[in-house]
């Protein structure tokens, strides 16, 4: 028979209405942790004891998963309200998800952004979408402009741009390819939106060309289904940028570029 009262974490009795466990097949650790997080999302804040009862697994197992969620910043605790005389020991803790914890269940931000830009296009025209894309990328790289343009050659600037993009959540890196550099963005927070509105990618490419002081060529994008957003940055020693290829963006010619340290990062 299921008890209608249980021992709280402080050792005191806490009367509570009967709770029917939710049948869950306990699988790998990740799946069980997801179920713990889901319960906190749907019914939290909750004590570890209540989570264990709801899922039909041991309190020790639940606490292990809760500790992991706490360590990852996906959950937090607060003192549980007492419903009877204060017992001895520490107060029971309620667990609840943080914003990071809620993110594992997804957001509708991409759909909202796409709807907003679609509305902008319908009511203000394509020029308004382009202006929005340019303003967005300006706010993204603008704060890092001095750190990038203090370098005198495109290769060093590309490395500085990669560091700036990484700080903005794009997980970027550079590598030498032939007589140029490839700037790779391994994550794109707006890929879903950019798939519908390529103006976002186009404005980004133009901003990169201006910052790097040479024409650049976008070779691949996550928005088109590629594994990374890859931009080729020519680095030549002839005194003039290479001739722009298809899909490239060229600023004013005449910048002398060289390969620093034999093309290796400093």
Automatic annotation (TrEMBL):
It comes from the Bacteria. Residues 1-30, 73-92, 237-266 are annotated as: Disordered. It holds the Pfam family HTH_24. InterPro entries: ArsR-like_HTH, Carb_Metab_HTH_regulators, WH-like_DNA-bd_sf, WH_DNA-bd_sf. Residues 18-29, 237-254 have a biased composition (Low complexity). This is ArsR family transcriptional regulator. It comes from Amycolatopsis keratiniphila. The lineage of its organism: Bacteria, Bacillati, Actinomycetota, Actinomycetes, Pseudonocardiales.
């Amino acid at each position: 028979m299921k008890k209608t009262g249980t021992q709280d974490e402080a050792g005191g009795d806490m009367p509570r209405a009967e709770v029917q466990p939710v049948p869950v097949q306990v699988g790998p650790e990740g799946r069980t942790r997801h179920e713990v997080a889901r319960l906190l999302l749907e019914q939290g804040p909750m004590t570890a004891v209540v989570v264990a009862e709801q899922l039909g697994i041991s309190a020790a197992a639940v606490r292990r998963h809760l500790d992991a969620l706490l360590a990852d910043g996906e959950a937090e605790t607060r003192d549980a309200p007492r419903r009877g005389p204060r017992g001895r020991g520490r107060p029971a803790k309620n667990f609840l998800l943080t914003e990071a914890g809620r993110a594992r269940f997804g957001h509708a931000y991409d759909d909202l952004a796409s709807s907003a830009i679609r509305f902008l296009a319908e009511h203000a025209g394509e020029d308004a979408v382009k202006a929005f894309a340019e303003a967005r990328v300006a706010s993204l790289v603008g704060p890092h402009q001095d750190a990038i343009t203090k370098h005198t050659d495109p290769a060093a600037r590309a490395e500085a741009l990669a560091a700036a993009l990484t700080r903005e959540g794009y997980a970027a890196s550079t590598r030498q390819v032939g007589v140029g550099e490839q700037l790779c963005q391994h994550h794109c927070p707006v890929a879903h939106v950019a798939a519908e509105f390529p103006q976002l990618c186009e404005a980004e490419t133009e901003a990169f060309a201006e910052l790097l002081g040479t024409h650049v060529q976008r070779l691949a994008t996550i928005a088109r289904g590629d594994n990374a957003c890859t931009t080729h940055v020519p680095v030549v020693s002839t005194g003039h940028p290479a001739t722009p290829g298809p899909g490239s963006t060229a600023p004013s010619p005449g910048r002398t570029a060289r390969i620093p340290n034999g093309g290796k990062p400093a």
